[in-house]
Specification:
Beta Polymerase, domain 2; disordered N terminus; 18% strand; alpha+beta; globular; 7 helices; binds ligand 0O2; 5-stranded mixed β-sheet
């Protein structure tokens, strides 16, 4: 037995070529200038998407700071969970087509405001509004649009507080404002929305009426549960003593 027996070879298995012969031949017919333009478009798209990632990171940092501050200095934490996602390029293009948006970076920036998305899950409805206040009161945050689906749920029962904020991202070229969609909801609302989302895709957006009715009914139950849990929480802990946001004034 040699010392190398039993150790797997680290050489990569033979990988197929990246392009088929046909694709390779097509590529060879493209002139150098077009190839350069394609490369420049690819690079610009990457830079464009990267800014959204940074914007998302900025918002997550703000929320993580609030969350940590609450855990350290208050006996109660309104943020249960924070998640985020960057829309895929395919989804951005789909949305662009659905909205009939002109394919330029400027138009996409102005019209598609949910490329970067952050979701905050809270225990109680009052926490959702408090987090909204604390985030939007920060001086470098500009509120572009608010959709309050908690006050006015969608017809299918969907509830969530949506806010599109603009946050500056500081790059080597200076400050760049980036739009980030923030969705704030309770655990019950989140449970409902994720199930509805799965059903929506399972049935390829053609959900049977009976199931739709069941979902709307479940949304009402989730809403009642939220109200009951908040009542019980107040009975035990009293009215929330979380700090109200002081509007941050630029110096
Ligand atoms: P994903 O995969 O979560 O990104 P607008 O951008 O204002 O022109 P839009 O996109 O309809 O119009 O805005 P809206 O109503 O604020 O909804 C945006 C997001 O909210 C959706 O993103 C979902 O995440 C969520 N949402 C809205 N309605 C529903 C609903 O009925 N059920 C569930 N489960 N989620 C909902 P995307 O891009 O659809 O998907």
């Amino acid at each position: 037995m040699t010392p190398l027996d039993g150790i797997q070879s680290t050489r990569h298995p033979k990988t197929p070529p990246m392009l088929t012969d046909r694709a390779q031949r097509t590529l060879e017919t493209i002139d150098g200038q077009t190839l350069d333009e394609m490369r420049a478009l690819r690079d610009e798209t990457e830079r464009f998407m990267l800014r959204y990632k940074f914007g998302m990171d900025e918002v997550i940092t703000k929320l993580s700071i609030l969350r940590e501050e609450f855990s350290q200095t208050h006996d109660y934490n309104p943020i249960e969970h924070i998640s985020s996602r960057l829309k895929s390029l395919d989804s951005v293009i789909d949305k662009m087509r659905r909205k009939g948006v002109e394919p330029t970076f400027d138009t996409i920036r102005d019209t598609i405001t949910d490329i970067a998305g952050v979701r905050i899950t809270c225990s109680f409805v009052s926490d959702a509004y408090r987090i909204f206040e604390l985030l939007t009161a920060q001086r470098d945050i500009r509120v572009l649009k608010v959709k309050d689906y908690i006050k006015e749920p969608k017809e299918n029962g969907y509830q969530s507080l949506h806010v599109i904020v603009e946050v500056p991202v500081f790059l080597s070229t200076g400050a760049h404002p980036v739009a980030v969609e923030v969705q704030i909801r309770t655990i019950a609302m989140d449970f409902w929305a994720s199930l509805e989302h799965k059903i929506y895709y399972k049935y390829d957006k053609q959900i049977p009426q009976e199931l739709l009715d069941g979902l709307t009914d479940a949304a009402h139950t989730a809403s009642e549960l939220d109200a009951r849990m908040e009542r019980l929480h107040r009975e035990v802990h009293g009215a929330p003593r979380l700090p109200h946001a002081k509007r941050d004034i630029a110096v």
